[in-house]
Structures are given as C-alpha cells and as structure tokens.
Amino acid sequence: MSTVAATAAETAAPERSRNRWLALTFLALAQFLVVLDASIVNIALPSLGAGLGLDPDLLTWVITAYVLPFGGLLMLGGRLADRYGHRTIFLAGVFGFIAASLAAGFSINGPMLLMSRAVQGASAALLAPAALALLMQLFPATDGRGKALGIWGAVAGLGSVAGVLLGGILTASIGWSAIFFINVPVGLVVLGAIPALLSRDVVTSKVRLDLPGAITITLGVVALVAAFSMVLEVGFLSPVTLGLGAAGVALLGLFAVIELRSPEPLVSFAIFASRSVTLGNLAVLLIGGAVVGLFFVLSLHMQNVLGYDAMLTGITQVPLALALIVAAGALPPVLAKFGSARTLAVSLVILAAGLAWLALAPVGADFVLHLLGPTIIIGAALGGAFIAGTELAVQGVSEADSGLASGLVNTSQQIGGALGLALLFTLATTMTDGLGANGADEITALAGGYSAAYLGAAGLALLGALIAALAARQ
C-alpha cells in the first residue's frame, strides 16, 4: 500500500464537502437503516406470518432473504463504488432500498415480500461500503477520523438495539408493514441531502470490472452464509449444510485462482499485505459473531426464561444502547493515544468479562440486580470494539481501494454474524437438551443453554482480543 497514495488521498478528501460533519450525519443515517433492517423484522415475524399466511417454517426466510444478498454482494458493491464513484453507488443503493421497502410494506403474499427483502439486501450491499468509503475520504486518519468513526459506530450499534425496540412498538401500534414503511421518509431525506452536501465523483479508474471474480465471490459468500444460516434449521451435520459449506469453500478457492491470474482483479490481494487490514478483518469477523449471537440469545432469554413481552424486551436493551453511545463518544482521544489495535484488545477483554458476568444470572433473574450491570458493560465494550475494529481494518488504505476495504469490513462482519449465530445457537440448544435429559425443568434447561451461549460469545471476544494484541505488536 503506497503511503504517498494514501497521503495524497487524505489531503484531497475534505474538498468533497464544505460541511463534512453534516454529510457524515446523513451517511450514518443510511447505515442505521441497513443495520436496523437486519434486526427489526425479528419481533414482527409472528404478526407478519399471520398477515400473509406464511408457514412458520418459512418465516426465517424473511430474514435470510435479506442477509444472503447483503453478505454476498458487499465485495462487489465496494468495488463498484471504487470503479463508478462512491457517491453514485451510494445514492443508487439508497434509491433501491427505498423502493424495496415500499414494495415490502405493500406485499400481499410471501413471494412478493421475500423478493422485496432480497432487493433490500442487494441495495444495502451497494450503499454500506460506499458510505464507509465516503467517510474515509471526508475524514483522513490524521484529521477527525477517530471522532467520525465514533459517531458511525454509535449509530450502527444503536441500529442493532433499536431494531428490537422499534419492531415491538411499530408492530403493536400500527402493524407489521410499518417496519418497512419507516425506511421511506428517512431514506428520502438522505437521498435529497447527500447530493447537496457531497461533490460529484471524480472517477479516474477505467479498469474493467472482473465479472468472473465478481460472480464466484458473490456465490461463494452466499453459499457460506446460507450454510451457517441452515445450521439453525437442520444442524451442522445435515447434507444441506455440508453441501452449501463445501460449495462456498470451492467457489472462494476458484475466486482466488481467478484473481491471481486476472490482470484487473476485483480484489487485489496486495491489500492483505497490510497486517492491520488482515488482522482487523479477522477481529471484525469475531466481533460480528459475538454480537449477532448475543442479541439473538439475549432476546430469547428475556422472553422465554424471564417472561418479558416483546415491548419490555426492547426497553430493557436501552441501557446497553446508551452505554454504547457514551463509550463511542468518549473513544476518539483513547484511539489517538493508544491506537486502534490496543483499544480493540482492551475493549474485547471487557466485552468478554461482561458476557461472563451475564452468564452467571440465575434462572429467576431480576433485571436491575442481575442483568443491568453486565449489559451496561457489554454496551460500553461494544462501542469501543465496533469503532476500533473498523479503524484497524481500514488503516492505511488508499482512496482508490477505500470501497474495497469497506466491502471487506462489512463482509467480514456478515460472515462472522452468520457463523457466530450458528455456533452459539447450537451451543445453547445442545446444553439445553443435555440439562433436560438430566432432569432439569424446561425453564432451568433453557437458562443453562443461554448461559452457555454467553460464555461461547465471550470466547469469541477473547479470540478477537488475541488477534488485536498481535496487531498491536506490529
């Protein structure tokens, strides 16, 4: 990675906007919608299924239809942004997201909804890496990037928590279609503001798009994410899971061969010569696994063991969200003093401690006495981990590769989320079944299973901390 290229890009970056902080606000708002839509559907699934007459076995596909194209097309989306312009691809993604959200809200049957969700995911794969690349251009590493990433991480983390709360409120008060319609006014505001705040793209690259590479990596990532998603339905050793996993590995292997032989590769493997990019993406993958699994299990724990309804489940996650926001706001000077790798390592150790504390909650836990403390610690640690992990993974990347680096970060998080959810849910189920077989009542067995999942998430966080510590030795 050329230091001269990176420096030149950073010097010119602020010229893209006369009010870069306001521009960041709308970029972060678009990212909020992307994260929100990955989680807001969960609580609305029963109501949605009843309204459209969907079989319960098909309800998980309302989530999967979004996740698969999102995860699979992120690398292509990042490279398209580098090739055709970051603002252009970002606006195209926002427009597609708005249109798909409208179609989802007006769906009259299952196939229409699933198709709309797929278009939402594909549109998100365009706007997410383009938005992060624009942030990198607006805020050079030596001029406000830490603070900008703090805002970015806080908004993205808030989207994960807000999905649970808003999903319950909107579904209960208006109906399931409201969880999709809410995207439309917000998206229109972003669509109108960004052209006024960001200058037009100046695209100097005339490199042809590597279609064989784009096809193989898209299909490979989709197969891997699908394999991990199928674990929740049919288990790790199912022929379907194993077949999809093998296909994913084979396609990614073929992708590597294509890229090494291509004169104009979709992904230049030279980017992995940067140790921070490689180790940062590995850490982000593990963070994604711990976080997605945590929110999924925590929601089940509060409803199935503690008896909370959907609304109360969302409200109890507000302290976690507030802790995340406060930590994200306080992080920039910490990043400046200790660096992203050290900050990430410490954040992940604190996250592991909070998860281990959460695992100690008794069966009849009182929220204030047993859950409030660990969830606040987890929220604060997530604020540090999200931001420091992203900063590490894009450190030193030139403007020409900013879309690619952003696509890598988002892809790592999506694959990690699918893998972590499969691993932690399987761990919880195995422990629950084991306790039930040994005579424990249903509630006690479920509580034991969820505690095992929290400890598993803590293990992922500690592994991420080890990787961050290796990066800190660079």
Indicate the topology.
Elements: H1 3-12, H2 20-39, H3 41-52, H4 60-84, H5 86-105, H6 110-138, H7 145-173, H8 178-181, H9 183-197, H10 211-234, H11 239-261, H12 275-305, H13 310-315, H14 318-338, H15 340-359, H16 367-393, H17 402-437, H18 442-472
Mean pLDDT: 84
Q: What is the level 1 CATH name of the largest domain?
A: Mainly Alpha
Structural class: mainly alpha
N-to-C SSE series?
HHHHHHHHHHHHHHHHHH
Spell out the CATH superfamily of the largest domain.
MFS general substrate transporter like domains
Number of helical segments with 4 or more residues: 18
Q: Globular, elongated, flat, extended or rod-shaped: what is the shape?
A: globular
The major sheet is characterized as:
none
List the domain count as a whole number: 2
Number of strands: 0
Q: Approximately how much beta-strand content do the residues carry?
A: under 5%
CATH topology of the largest domain, anyone? Growth Hormone, Chain: A
The separation of the N and C termini measures 16 Å
CATH architecture type of the largest domain: Up-down Bundle
What low-confidence regions span 5 or more consecutive residues with pLDDT below 50?
1-14
Work out the radius of gyration: 21 Å
Helicity range of the residues?
Answer: over 70%
